[in-house]
Write a structure and sequence with these properties.
Length: 274
Amino acid sequence: MSATAEPGRLTPPDVRARKGGEPLVVLTAYTTPMARLVDRHCDIVLVGDSVGMVLHGLPSTLGVTMEMMILHGQAVARGLSRALMVIDMPFASYEEGPAQAFRNAARLMAETGAAAVKLEGGVHMAETVAYLAARGIPVMGHVGLTPQAVNQLGGYRVQGRGADGDRIRGDAAAVAGAGAFAVVLEKVPDALARAISRDLAVPVIGIGASADCDGQVLVVDDMLGMFTDFRPRFVRRYAELGAEADQAIAAYAADVRARRFPAPEHVFATEPRQ
Ligand code: KIV
């Protein structure tokens, strides 16, 4: 169960080298079947801590644990053969300082086979990013709206409007300068995202940012219409699988109640057929 450094597998340096080239395609996955689907089409698969809300019904990402990330990371690794696997560091697993971050990042990589970790935060996380990068841990940064700081930010608001743009620009430059091989930029104005994409020497992966970023990421359950608790404006729905599943389950329930299921082809004869 390794998702790292095999032939044909995208690596963090490959991703870094895509700066200014064909846009990077990134989706989340949390299970083996979804990882298999996503692997065929994406450059990077992110085991996001959004798993807490999407699969576990948590109200935010704050309740996600190392154990949850490891379990889902192991499942995703089994489904990947070419995409780069990046795993989120959950809330409170890295903020105390570089040594705590190293311990938990190394555990996530060793126990799941992920080739890189993602962590949230800008200027205040630069020292940690540099510490990890210098010790063999590729780091993807995440600035702009950082969902683990939802309480501090007062909600899932657009970040970096007006004069606040300089703060986000400084955050992005700090993590890239500290050695992040790519930076996720979430929910910022389009013009700011374009400026940051121009500023940085590493790929900027947008979510609610700009089509001019070096790549795009979405939560796979959002774009498939499977997670419908809320719908951020930056999500485009490419399917309505939730609604389709609802219809299918309703049809099954009606068939069972009317004794239309199982049908003769689903049941077994007393003697095997010759
Ligand atoms: O947890 C997650 O899914 C993420 C992406 C939305 C970038 O961090």
